[in-house]
Structure formats: C-alpha cells, structure tokens
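Review form for a predicted model. The reviewer records the input and the model, then writes brief findings.
Reviewer: anonymous (R2)
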Amino acid sequence: MSGIMKDKVVLVSELFDKAEQYGKTTIQLYRLKAIDKITDVFASVASRIIIAVSIALFFFLLTIGLSLYIGDLLGKSYYGFFVMAGFYVVVTAILVFIRKKYIELRFNNYVIKEIFKEKKRDATN
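Model under review:
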C-alpha cells in the first residue's frame, strides 16, 4: 500500500472510532436525561403523596372529633360514628362514579405534564 492509501485507511478508521464514541455518548446522554425526568416525576408525585397523607390525617382526626360531637348531640357516642360512616359511604359512592372522568384523567394528565415539562435552568448553565 502506498502512503496515501495508508492515510485514507487511518482516516476512515478514526472516523469510525469517532462515530462509535459519538453513539456511546449519545446513548449515555439519553440515559441521563431519562433518569433526570424519572427523578423529577418521582419527586413531584412523592411530594403530592406526602401532602395527601397530611390532609388525610387531618380529616381522620376531624372525623373522630365530629363523630364524638354528633354522638354527644344524639345521646350515644357511637351514633356519631354511624352518622360519619354513612357520610363516608355516600362520598365513596360518588367518588367511584366520577373516578374515571375526574380523578384518573387528572392524575394521568399531571404525570404526562411532568414528564414533558421543560426543566428551568439557572443562568450558569
């Protein structure tokens, strides 16, 4: 082989090496972006779950207080618990009927919005 042919072989070899490195770097970049998105969505959903648990505890304690108060008004403390249980049966029945249209749809939309939301970067990036 002549010197020119060797140079061309070396250039093609270097080109393939650079293309392979580019491919590996691109795959790594997509992995890191996917991990970033997953952690953002998880953090957002986790914070909402924590808030929901706090609200549930508030309503749980409020329900106990109202049950005792209503029971006191009705003469027997357990009557108040029956009244509150009936209230929650009605609320649960309503939630079962509206869950597809309002609850699941909103949750799905929220998760999709979080996945495709652009991350705000600070001025240094």
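Findings: The chain has two domains: 1-75, 84-124.
Further findings: Residues 1 and 40 are 56 Å apart (CA to CA).
Recommendation: see findings above.
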